[in-house]
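Note to self: keep these together.
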Amino acid sequence: MVFFKMCIFNKNIDFLIRRNKYFCKKNKKMTFENLKPLVAAIVAKENTTRDEKLLAICQLLTNSIEYYNWVGYYFANHDKQTLHLGPYVGAETDHTVIPFGKGICGQVALSNNNFVVPDVAAQDNYIACSFTVKSEIVVPLFVNGVNIGQIDIDSHVLDPFTAADERFLEFVNQEVSKLF
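Structure:
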């Protein structure tokens, strides 16, 4: 029964993604504003688990934004001072547990600030995931003022992230925070 529900949920999300891609191609311009109602719809979807919704958001972002090549969530264990990998879309990663302070994600866990890395090769405290990753953006996820995790995005393009990406991902996390 759970598998059946997941298939129906995925078909609905696939429809939203296809509709968004069609809209973007038709208008020859993808905007974050087009994605906001789709993210909100995923969060509001009934009869789906939080992980299913997070995975659907990751799928939406990787399928809709050309330079978002790996999208995933890490969640904090404040007692152990570690981040734990949650739902993601992209290449497999060995980085399923990251200590606070280590790498970009670990630094965000301590600073509570967005971190944009235009060129990962120039970053001292970077955990290499793949030679194809050229840049990264990490935006913290707050619930009741507490940093409970983050959205992490890797790109195969040098320096693609702008302030608009940051604002959009802050919106995504604001929506996601409603799931907690």
